TrEMBL record:
InterPro entries: Agluc_phsphrylas, Glyco_trans_35, Glycogen/Maltodextrin_Phosph, Glycogen_phosphorylase_DUF3417, Pyridoxal_P_attach_site. This is glycogen phosphorylase. It is an enzyme of class 2 (transferase). The lineage of its organism: Bacteria, Bacillati, Actinomycetota, Actinomycetes, Sporichthyales. Phosphorylase is an important allosteric enzyme in carbohydrate metabolism. Enzymes from different sources differ in their regulatory mechanisms and in their natural substrates. However, all known phosphorylases share catalytic and structural properties.
């Protein structure tokens, strides 16, 4: 009989074992092997049976076993030590506190970090892929560094789906309901003990209520909003039902709750916990962008600021990270829908709907006037923005350049911070143990520590690799058997599964979500060639593959089916497997067991990619298209670059060219190197690459490096701007808003009327000086409102100034006509074609970039022509 209602009975821990509860509810266990060892010791069989989930373990372990442990003084001592260690981890001074004291940067008192998904551990399935895992790694590294961050997301009652396969290899999805009481989270309560509620308004006079759960990620709280509460109607209760499910309006509801409800949840959390309110709000991708609207509303309603001043105050403390150059990946809504949700009976008096619509309008050429673009709003609402690798930064500056007309892509105010991965989460315990044993390093935490790798012998390095490969082979056989049983096979048919994969064969891994740009099936472009590589008599390869297609993406499901059908063939099935239900648990098993990690996206659509970073930490070599992070850090010796057929427009032709290059690389370079053995039977040249990979990439790919970059380059400057604007009852926010409005109003009259140059004429010599004088009309503006710049440098054939330098010119004379004469001098330092121009930009010390307003005035006729070669 089916139960009509379920609830969870939590195990009553004996008083001596209460610390187990503390260890289970702080998710540090997910990256702390010693804590996990304690859970395993509670009951090894149950621990594995519950999928290494501490909450489930404590619910499942027998009372007899608990009483036994309660009487076990050795176990209790170990438990007490573990809790003491966790408490000191959570309270001691760390990098952030030391920096704060050193006073180098005025660091923010707190930072709120919003993301639609968080991947902390496989037992909290609130992520679909890289974006969520990045957010999880961000919080974990922030915790390790002592950064006072508060994570904000949604609690999806059904998480993301569980993937399985039909007999025919078609992806099937299941969404088991999660019971929050079985998860390592707790509900936030008001001081009087009642459950905290966050409410937002919906059109038609409806209200959306949510409760707020808190997951503790080391030192960092993660707040998760959940609309499944009784006072909501059935429709509202479903809003947080699943990750990326439902249609457009469903997604909008989720984003309203995340952005607006999220800010309210943060305020309530800070009030209840007595911790400081965030000075910086960071939105990981555009989905949480409405947080900016809520903060404008706060400044307007609580501080009485007019909209424009409130916008300035909110912007100063907002950071936006864009994560995708794939147009389909950008979050857009019909403009009408936004008008309905922020207008009519749901309008906010202080935040007019027209102003909101302006923020998300695609005002650039090629933009669609009927849509509201969340990334565009993100860029307008955040004074600081970034992409997630050097290449992605450049691609984003091109892609969003239309929002800053008149500026070269290089000047578009979107910087980049390359993603990283949390080493304690992603490094195989065996590899950590190896470092500890051979190099005496407990854990490789700082860049200098990586030098200790030199102390690890080739033999030990090889043996760990063999062990991890062996382990993967065993786990693949277990998983494959279960998969086939699920696909309807009987045990009797599955004898062959025991001989799938070989622990001594070169193992190549490929696992990620299955959007088309990641090209899951590129390796199948020439099936015969692939088969030949798999079955090579001396140098075979084996492939382990995994990935989920979005439930609504039949194209992706067809790719999976194509691959599964190939892998089902008895001729090759011992050398190629597709594993279902790729999640953090499978990734952590798979990556360290592979020798090579393959990535073949369509360049430049992979913004960063992080699984290859996890591979590098484990000494697994990357074989990848030069996209995302690999474009930045491939150095010719730490792996292989698959060439891109850039410029080949026919996608089939492009796949053919790139796959053929991939087969060639494997055949002529990767496999020979792996199988080449020296006198002691070791692949010395392979191990040299492994060593170089770990040593050169290890320090760079760390999430701790990434979070430090965010603190130094974005959070600290944002906090400074935000404080400055907030000082003196927000007087500078008002001033900046009225200055911008005056400058925008007067800009049409700003002109460069005349430019003259003396010194160099047609030909000049290195060391000569060029003096420039120009006449500028400022109309109603003042010289103090602008920066008149000489822009100069080498030019190309079409007179584009390459890598331009700038010199601010000074006012030499002011005329009654409203014109001013500006002048300045530069010395010619390099030979070759030289060009210059003059431009006028708005200037205010509170701007984060001269391009911020998107305003620039240049001479009507080209004033700075190439003046012939400098000798
Ligand atoms: C790391 C990871 C990803 C992201 O991989 P990419 O290489 O960035 O595509 C996705 N899913 C899981 C489960 C991961 O562990």
């Amino acid at each position: 009989m089916r139960a009509i209602r379920r609830f969870t009975v939590r195990a009553a821990l004996p008083a001596e074992l209460l610390p187990l509860g503390e260890l289970a509810t702080n998710l540090r266990w997910s990256w702390h092997a010693d804590t996990r060892a304690i859970f395993a010791a509670v009951d090894p069989t149950t621990w594995d049976a519950v999928g290494q989930d501490p909450m489930k373990l404590l619910g499942a372990v027998s009372t007899t076993r608990l009483s036994e442990l309660a009487a076990d003084t050795e176990f209790r001592a170990r438990l007490d030590a573990a809790v003491a260690d966790l408490r000191s981890y959570c309270t001691e001074e760390r990098w952030y506190q030391r920096n704060e004291q050193a006073g180098e940067h005025p660091l923010p008192r707190a930072i709120a970090y919003f993301s639609p998904e968080f991947g902390i551990t496989a037992v909290l399935p609130q992520y679909s892929g890289g974006l969520g895992i990045l957010a999880g790694d961000h919080l974990k590294a922030a915790s390790d560094l002592g950064v006072p961050i508060i994570g904000v997301g949604l609690l999806y009652r059904r998480g993301y789906f569980i993937q399985s396969l039909s007999r025919e290899g078609w992806q099937e999805e299941r969404y088991p309901v999660l019971d929050p009481h079985e998860l390592p989270i707790e509900a936030l309560r008001e001081a009087d003990g009642s459950l905290l509620r966050v409410r937002i308004g919906l059109p038609g006079g409806r209200t959306l209520s949510a409760q707020v759960w808190k997951a503790q990620v080391g030192r960092v709280p993660l707040l998760l909003l959940d609309s499944d509460v009784e006072e909501n109607g059935p429709f509202e209760r479903e809003i947080t039902d699943r990750l990326y499910g439902g249609g457009t309006e469903h997604r909008l509801h989720q984003e309203l709750l995340l952005g607006i409800g999220g800010v309210r949840a943060v305020r309530a959390y800070c009030r209840l916990s007595g911790t400081p309110d965030p000075e910086v709000f960071h939105t990981n991708e555009g989905h949480a962008g409405f947080l900016g609207i809520e903060r404008i509303r706060e400044y307007a309603d609580e501080d009485g600021l007019p909209f424009d001043a409130a916008l300035e105050a909110a912007r100063a403390g907002t950071v936006f990270t864009t994560h995708t150059p794939v147009p389909a990946g950008i979050d857009r809504f019909p403009r009408e829908l936004i008008a309905t949700y922020f207008g009519g009976d749901n309008a906010i008096a202080s935040v007019p709907v027209e102003r909101i619509l302006e923020l998300g309008a695609e005002t650039y050429s090629g933009g669609d006037p009927t849509v509201f673009n969340m990334a565009v709003m993100g860029l307008r609402l955040a004074q600081r923005a970034n992409g997630v690798s050097l290449l992605h930064g450049a691609v984003s500056r091109e892609m969003f350049g239309g929002l800053w007309p008149g500026f070269d892509p290089d000047e578009v105010p979107i910087t980049s911070i390359t993603n990283g991965v949390h080493a304690p989460t992603w490094t195989a315990p065996e590899a950590i143990e190896l470092a500890r044993r051979e190099a005496g390093q407990a854990f490789i935490a700082t860049a200098e520590d990586w030098g200790a790798l030199d102390d690890v012998s080739d033999r030990a390095l090889f043996d760990v690799g063999r062990l991890l490969r062996e382990r993967l082979v065993q786990s693949v056989r277990r998983r494959l058997r279960a998969q086939w049983l699920q696909r309807g096979a009987s045990e009797a048919e599955l004898g062959w599964v025991n001989t799938v994969l070989d622990p001594d064969v070169l193992t190549i891994g490929f696992a990620r979500r299955v959007p088309s740009y990641k090209r899951l099936t590129l390796m199948l472009t020439d099936p015969e060639r692939l088969q030949h590589l798999l079955l090579h008599p001396e140098r075979p390869i084996q492939l382990v593959i995994a990935g989920k297609a979005h439930p609504a993406d039949d194209g992706g499901k067809r790719l999976i089916q194509e691959l599964v059908r190939f892998a089902d063939d008895p001729a090759v099935r011992h050398r190629i497997v597709f594993l279902t239900d790729y999640d953090m648990g499978l990734a952590a098993e798979m990556i360290p067991g592979c020798d090579v990690w393959l990535n073949n996206p369509l360049r430049p659509l992979e913004a960063c990619g992080t699984s290859g970073m996890k591979a590098a930490l484990n000494g697994c070599l990357n074989l990848s298209v030069l996209d995302g992070w690999w474009d930045e850090w491939y150095d010719g010796a730490n792996g292989w670059a698959i060439p891109s057929a850039t410029g080949v427009d026919d996608p089939e032709r492009r796949d053919e060219l790139e796959s053929s290059a991939l087969y060639d690389l494997i055949e002529t370079s990767v496999a020979p190197r792996f199988y080449e053995r020296d006198d002691s039977g070791l692949p010395a040249r392979w191990l040299e690459m492994v060593r170089h990979t770990i040593g050169s990439l290890g320090p760079k790919v760390l999430a701790s490096r990434m979070v430090q970059d965010y603190v130094n380059q974005l959070y600290a400057p944002a906090a400074v701007s935000s404080r400055e604007l907030a000082d003196d009852k927000l007087s500078l926010a008002r001033e900046l808003a009225s200055w911008k409005s005056r400058v925008r109003g007067g800009w049409e009259a700003v002109r460069v009327d005349h430019v003259e140059v003396s010194g160099a004429v047609d030909v000049a010599s290195v060391g000569d000086e060029v003096s420039v004088s120009c006449l500028v009309s400022l109309g109603s503006l003042d010289p103090a409102d602008v920066d008149v710049q000489l822009v100069y440098g080498r030019v190309d054939e079409s007179d584009q100034i390459l890598a331009p330098q700038t010199l601010s010119l000074t006012v030499a004379e002011q005329f009654d006509s409203g014109r001013s004469r500006y002048e300045g001098t530069v010395a010619l330092r390099n030979s070759g074609p030289f060009g210059y121009s003059v431009r006028v930009l708005p200037a205010h010390r509170l701007l984060a970039s001269p391009a911020e307003l998107g305003l620039v005035a240049v001479p009507m006729a080209p004033a700075g022509m190439t003046d012939g070669p400098v000798r």
